[in-house]
Amino acid sequence: MPASKLHDTQNQSDARGIPIDRVGVKGLRFPLKIRDRDQAEQSTVAVVSLAVDLPHHFKGTHMSRFVEVLHSHGQVLTVADIAGMPRELLKKLHADKAHVEFRFPWFRMKKAPATKAEGLMDYGIIFEVNAEGEKVDFVVTVEVAVTTLCPCSKAISVHGAHNQRGVVTFSVRFTKPVWIEELVELVEASASSELYSLLKRPDEKVVTERAYENPVFVEDLVRNVALRAKQHPQITWFKVEAENFESIHNHNAYALIEQTVER
Question: Which of 25, 149, 162, 183 has the most crowded CB, counting CB atoms within 10 A?
Fold first, then answer.
């Protein structure tokens, strides 16, 4: 059958009267280039989600158009491409709302605190962009692993104190672009100690003693991040979640703060 004669089933009407908030594609992998404060540029691979709203009277959306928009920017995307993509989806799919999400690993070379031995640390990054009409909302999220040491354990124990690794998920809106490095450093400075991928014995001594001298509850951790976020000149909104993988309990400790920053 000629292409002009093929039925467009997605454009058929639907009588159920139920709109869909988001419909699209998920799980696409795509190369990405990110500006890097340390090394100018970094290449990575993102897992991509693209979606739009669907009015109640349409049966379906055109899935191929999402992939067309993604591939229209060439083989490697930039942050500017991502920021403009929701508006492209609005136009391409005749929608009122569009959603774009890129999740990717980001790497940073870190020197151990005593020996200065170098090792790569990885962090989880999420770019989420939503568009509705002329309004575009861009949220950047960093997922940062840290060390925390329990203040209560330190206060009541004759020898030592229990500590654990935790993950902080820190999301921000901003007036001007913020370096990923800034957000990572803000979180790491709020914990008992930051983590490293390569530690020799002198480094382990520094890290464990640093954590012991700087005990924080999970509540302290999110409050520390919140205080630094409110002092950052570009951040207008933030959400910080912390989850500690407890070393002596059969559960995790968790805390969350979400605030709009008045300027």
Answer: 183
